[in-house]
Design goal:
The structure holds two protein chains of two kinds. Chain A is 37% helix and 23% strand. By secondary structure, chain A is an alpha+beta fold. Chain A has two domains: 67 residues; 158 residues, Cupredoxins -  blue copper proteins (Immunoglobulin-like). In chain A, a hairpin with a 2-residue loop joins strand 1 and strand 2. In chain A, helix 2 packs antiparallel against helix 3. Chain B is an all-alpha fold. Helices cover 67% and strands 0% of the residues of chain B. In chain B, helix 16 runs antiparallel to helix 17. Classes of the chains: A alpha+beta, B mainly alpha. The interface between A and B is large, with 103 and 97 residues. Bound molecules: copper (II) ion.
């Protein structure tokens, strides 16, 4: 039967949606319908609030649109419906003013809790400064614990995506992959490497125009504004590669300055960072103004 | 003198002769209303052309047709043209035509200013579009502005001299809007027929009265903001330049103090239109007339104190985020009242589904969907994921296309017989409606999915995971491109072959506009009409 098939495909869709809720996902999927819960406590909380908002809207929609559809079927002039003459009813008007307020409170309460959580950037174990440039990201490792660092590098669109995205390049975006994932426009030359199970504070600013540093899996989106320093924080538990993009229009290559965050265990991170620090010290020690390895803006 | 009077009596009107006298020098509210509507239609087509470029480039991953910078010009101009060139002038056109007819006034209060406020607009849009035309035709200049319609500095002032063209264009549009608003307020407050008390006015007049106050309040704010941009770019000031001690975020606060009321400027008149159409085709008085008026006023008030919800990710203090979240959520209450009242008006009515009613019902459903995503966007934590994604694009197109634009189309079908004296072809109008219903949803609904999956807005190219829904969306857009032609054909056919319309073109239509003949004579209500409560749009409204 046609209907049975339709029902099965609907159920399959729901199952897929439910599966999204459990599996951490680094890249978007084809035909994806919903937000993914991400990999941090905050991103999970955001997802819960998003779903609660969605359910509330669906419930209200069913009531309101249901009433409209019933009215459109039952009260048709062509079926001989005769119009009533009433035009107000104080009781129901009070009800549908007060009930929505209660529903709003049920939404605002959990949202407030999460906003307060998201704003608490203190007691971080390390700090990374993020700078938006037209059209690349600069990363500075400021400190880990009490130890200051001087590691700085620039992260830009990977060369293959960059070649492919030229007007009528003739190259196939479907063939741009990284780590086995379709990574067209979501890959960079130098990812931001961070440790897992560590409270990281990001301080975010802009160098030229306003950008926004957005990594959906971490639930962070923070505008990078010249002259202003914003902050955000995260704790990532699962090692992995998390991809994001600039989210504030910043000029012609706004679509081409992705973000890649590579989360690795603390020991591995510490080893990587110390290597970078040593390289930075070597580069800075002689008076010669050697350009930074990763290329300067 | 005597001959002149005899002459006008014989013809029952004295339209000025010749195109120049009739249209360019017009001071007649009906002719100026027509001018506004024709202008809005042309601008809607131009704006649609820009969105055609956008959707064509976005049909598949990779850049196939235009450079990113040109793409950014298209998104910027699409927004400016649709907002200031199509939606707002269309509502002003409807106000020009209908407000005097609905309150029993002979014309607008300030007819010469009325002429001026319209004729500024073609010049404003010539200025706005000229850099693009020059670039396309002569290959000179850098093209139009490309920093987004929100004009955020420092990006906005990086553009070439198109920035100056656009800012002066915005100034002119602002002057036009303010003059139009003054005119509407003066007309409504001074020229109502005796007995047309404020609380007996049709809802469309009420919503426009409130909208006009919003316009007067916020257009000067926009003018101030763009003027500071101009001096920052050309005269070395540093209002928004951090290096000079200015603050780029300050622009956003000022812009959205204009921008949020602007959203309601584009939707309150739509509420009014729908509140006229639904009672007519439900054959039942509007439910909760006074509640509708108060809800409109509360929405207008709230619109001034919620601007921060456009800026949740700029790094506002925690208290600011919470305040703007609560205030924004509060808007759902009066908006909900309106939706419930429309549904209650239909409940136990005697419904028929002529074209205006179809558009009005579609408005209620699809605008409510836009309201739902608006409520979700108000939730600060979730907004951190939604901000600047296609989820937002889907949201405001549901509100502005299936909201504002649908109400305008509904209004044109509803009052067309009054304007022209002719009915349109109901079958073709139904084809127009259902075609639009299908394709507008194919166009915009998948954009919710794209945004939730992580696609930022204002990008010319995207990861392959977004390819499928983008293609679906583009197919919807191509379907939508046929609709202006359908609409124009239906209206042209009606002018040529349409059946004659009666004075009361719809059997249950109430309101003073239906007491004058169809088509409405060039001059109406030269002597104020006597008001009988049963003629009023909303019947006995003493409660
Ligand atoms: Cu950017």
């Amino acid at each position: 039967m046609k209907w049975a098939g339709l029902l099965r495909s609907k159920l399959g869709l729901l199952a897929a949606l439910a599966a999204c809720a459990n599996v951490a996902q680094a890249v978007p999927e084809r035909w994806q319908l919903n937000m993914t819960p991400g990999v941090t406590r905050v991103s999970h909380d955001i997802y819960q609030i998003h779903m609660w908002g969605l359910y509330v809207c669906c419930a209200i929609g069913i009531v309101v649109f249901g009433a409209m559809i019933i009215a459109m079927i039952r009260f048709r002039k062509s079926k001989g419906a005769v119009a009533a003459t009433w035009s107000h009813n104080t009781k129901v008007e009070i009800v549908w003013t007060v009930v929505p307020i209660l529903i709003l409170v049920s939404l605002a309460y959990p949202a407030t809790r999460v906003v307060i959580d998201m704003a608490y950037t203190e007691q971080s174990q390390m700090t990374v400064k993020i700078t938006g440039y037209q059209w690349k990201w600069g990363y500075d490792y400021i400190n880990v614990g009490d130890k200051p660092y001087h590691v700085h590098f620039i992260s830009r669109l990977d060369p293959l995506s960059d070649k492919t995205r030229q007007l009528r390049s003739g190259l196939d975006p479907w063939k741009v992959e990284d780590n086995g994932e379709p990574a067209y426009l979501l890959n960079v030359d130098h990812p931001l490497v961070v440790p897992t199970d560590t409270k990281i504070r990001f301080v975010v600013t802009g160098d030229d125009v306003i950008h926004a540093w957005w990594v959906p899996a971490l639930g962070i989106k923070q505008d990078a504004i010249p002259g202003i320093i914003n902050d955000a924080w995260t704790v990532i538990h699962d090692p992995g590669i998390y991809r994001g993009q600039c989210a504030e229009l910043c000029g012609q290559d706004h679509g081409f300055m992705p973000i890649v965050v590579k989360a690795v265990p603390m020991t591995e991170f510490q080893k990587w960072l110390d290597e970078q620090e040593a390289a930075a010290t070597r580069a800075n020690a002689p008076a010669a103004p050697a350009p930074a390895a990763a290329g300067a803006g | 003198m005597t001959t002149h009077v005899a002459h006008s009596d014989a013809h029952h009107d004295d339209k000025p002769h010749g195109f120049f006298n009739r249209w360019v020098c017009s001071t007649n509210h009906k002719d100026i209303g027509t001018l506004y509507l024709v202008f809005a239609f042309i601008m809607a087509c131009v704006g649609a052309l820009f969105s055609g470029v956008i959707r064509t480039e976005l049909a598949q991953p990779g850049l196939q047709f235009v450079q990113p910078y040109f793409f950014n010009q298209m998104t910027t101009l699409h927004a400016l043209v649709m907002i200031f060139g199509a939606i707002m002038p269309a509502f002003v056109g409807l106000a020009n035509w209908m407000v005097p007819l609905m309150i029993g006034a002979p014309d607008m209060a300030l007819p010469r200013m009325n002429n001026w406020s319209f004729w500024i607009l073609p010049f404003a849009f010539t200025l706005l579009l000229w850099p693009l035309v020059q670039y396309l035709l002569f290959g000179t200049g850098g093209g139009a502005i490309a920093g987004g319609w929100t004009l955020y500095p420092p990006l906005a002032i990086q553009g070439g001299d198109a920035v100056a063209f656009s800012i002066f264009a915005v100034h002119l549009m602002g002057i036009s809007s303010i003059m139009g608003a003054i005119n509407i307020i003066a007309t409504i407050l001074n020229l109502r027929a005796p007995g047309m008390d404020l609380l007996k006015m049709p809802l469309f007049v009420w919503t426009w009265l409130i909208t006009a106050f919003l316009l007067i309040a916020v257009m000067p704010v926009l003018a101030g903001a763009v003027t500071m941009l101009l001096t920052d770019k050309y005269f070395g000031t540093s209002f928004f330049n951090a290096a000079g001690g200015g603050d780029p975020v300050m622009f956003q606060h000022i812009f959205w103090f204009f921008g949020h009321p602007e959203v309601y400027i584009m939707i309150l008149p739509a509420f009014g239109i729908v509140s006229e159409i639904i009672p007519t085709f439900s054959r039942k008085p509007l439910f909760g007339y006074q509640a509708m008026v108060y809800a409109t006023a509360s929405i207008a008030f709230l619109s001034f104190i919620v601007w921060g919800h456009h800026m949740f990710t700029v790094g506002m203090p925690l208290g600011g985020e919470l305040y703007f979240m609560y205030a924004t959520m509060l808007i759902a209450v009066p908006t909900g009242v309106k939706v419930f009242n429309w549904v209650s008006t239909m409940w136990r009515g005697s419904l028929s589904f002529e074209a205006p009613m179809l558009w009005a019902i579609a408005f209620v459903i699809l605008f409510t969907i836009g309201g739902f995503s608006g409520l979700m966007l108000a939730l600060v934590p979730a907004d951190f994921q939604y901000q600047d994604t296609y989820f937002v694009v889907a949201h405001f197109h549901y509100v502005l296309v299936t909201g504002a634009l649908f109400s305008i189309i509904g209004a044109i079908y509803y009052w067309w017989p009054k304007w022209t004296g002719r009915m349109y072809n109901e079958t073709w109008a139904k084809v127009h409606f259902w075609w639009t219903m299908v394709f507008v949803n194919v166009l915009f609904f998948p954009q919710h999915f794209l945004g939730l999956a992580g696609m930022p807005r204002r990008i010319p190219d995207y990861n392959v995971a977004f390819a499928d829904w983008n293609l679906v969306s583009t197919i919807g857009a191509y379907g939508m491109f046929l609709t202006p032609f359908m609409f124009a054909f239906i209206l042209w056919h009606s002018l040529k072959k349409g059946a004659k319309a009666e004075a009361r073109a719809w059997e249950a239509a109430h309101g003073l506009e239906w007491t004058v003949p169809s088509p409405a004579p060039f001059h109406t209500f030269a002597t104020p009409p006597a008001i009988h409560d049963e003629d009023l749009a909303h019947g006995d409204v003493t409660h």
